[in-house]
Task: structure prediction
Amino acid sequence: MFLGVPKSLVQRLGWTTASYGFAQLLRLVNNVILARLLAPPIFGLMAVVTAVRTGVELLSDVGILQNIISNPKGDDPLFYDTAWTLQVLRGLALASFSILLAVPISRFFNYPELATIMPVASLFFIFTGFDSTSRGVVQKQLQIARVSMFQIALGVITLVANVSAALITQTVWALVVGSVATSAATLIISFLFIPGTRHRFIIDPDCARQLMKFGKWVFFSSIVYFFAMNFDRLYFAKQISLSQLGVYGIARGLADMVSLFVQRCSSFVLYPTVAAAGLAPVELRKRMLHGRRTLLFAAAVAMGSFLALSGLIVRLLYDARYSEAALVLPILCAGVWFNILSSTNDAILMGLSRPAYPAISNAAKLLTYVVGVPLAFYSYGFMAAVAVIAMGELVKYVALWMLSHKEHLRFGRDDLVLTIVFFLTAFLMRELTHALGWTASARQLHPHALLGSIHL
Result:
């Protein structure tokens, strides 16, 4: 045991932390190099492509991997071969749908380039459709080391593919080709998870029914999740320039780095652990309390420090074309903290086979965006809209906390203390770096100071 956390959980978290840290280092190097080689409008256009592609993918998601992890028959060849067959059919259908959408999408956003980019980007769906389901089996068996090595290998391939493409052509095609190449590599590596893995085309009616029964809530949740996660990019794509959208995308990507780590821990460690435990909520809370507290305390310190240093990080890594990201990033970081709290609760509830709750909480977040973002944008400008985006994460957390309370999963006091740790860390780190002459004082992080800093 380590600070009350089981040794096996510490080891899995250790693998997850180490691999994620290395993968994020590769991702950061990738982003910085690409920012030097490519202009902001290219990132803006790719943000639209990615949002549309993600939307097409999530709007038909039935939770194949989640099914394999949570279902007792998940590692039965008949079950995962049925899942793989449905996944292949879905991938082919999504690729066809993406091609059909190309021209209407290009006209809607008034970017003619999308008419030729979308058909090429649709190859992503074909490659991911044929991905081996062994990734879900490995996660179910809690072989975190193997999953971690996969993520590191994928990070290296992504870096090489994107930078190579950008050196050949300094256009949006560098990002498109790099993305497709990465999905192809993912397909190949997925069959190396479990050596000798073979899939066959088969649809067992009973297995298919189980997949669809669990997947109906995942489907609804994915629809809501897509719009909640991509509403900002889709809305801003119609309201601001591609250059400004590219700068916003850089800030959003940096803000998500810590939250993606906690989501990764939640998906690869917490979710399968809860699903395998088979405990009642009250007993589960006792078992998970120390591990969750340790993970989130580290996240609070890391996220608070990152918020304090956000402007300095942008100045050190990016050139003057991306300087406005330093003003957007602190606001997004505040929202990301509540996203981090929510992600652990999401994983626990999914492990308890309660997919409806994350769907409902994401719906509350989406409603905040649909009503609040346009109103804030037209009334007070871009930065006010960004503040609403951050606030949406708080709304989601509150909704999820209320739903978790019904299941006797009470983490409210812990989360309040951790939130204080997050903001206190940000304040103290900012004052320390100000004393060293690296940053402005903590007063510059005040919401009114940030909101009044820029008008895009």
